[in-house]
Amino acid sequence: MTVQAKSPPRVMRFDGLSFAPRFAFPEMARVVEVAGAEDGSALAGGFARFTGARIPWQLRYDELILVLDGRLVVETADGRLEAGPMDTIWLPAGTDLVYSSENALVWYCLQPAGWSRDMDAAGSGA
Fold it and tell me: What Pfam family is a match, any one (predicted)?
């Protein structure tokens, strides 16, 4: 197994980040990853903006979400999780859920960082 070299420490300025559409609902979710597999890390992290969102999803990774602005609701089989500014939500891999928000900015961390690439390589799709 080849070990990828890690990228050096750096600062990413929020006002210099470029959010891109995400999921099959590009008008509802825009994200920017600031660190992840390309950095040689098993951990990925970034920002997501939700606008008028109702997005069904099944997690293929462990995820931790910190709400920075607005409100985020995550509906799971175990119940409805509502979070506002400075609240966090823990979601384990395998969770079927729906992300909902009128308007929210969140920070996310997930592991494994290369989950999408790994699924594509295995022919599973994302």
Answer: EutQ
Residue 9 falls inside a structural domain: no
Q: How many CB atoms lie within 10 A of CB 5?
A: 8
Tell me, what CATH number does 92's domain have?
2.60.120.10
Residue 107: which domain range? 31-115
In sequence order, the β-bridge partners of residue 44 are 110
Low-confidence ranges of the chain (pLDDT < 70): 1-3, 117-126
Tell me whether residue 7 is in a domain: no
Query: β-strands 44-58, 29-35: how paired?
Result: antiparallel
Q: Is the whole model's pTM more than 0.85, yes or no?
A: yes
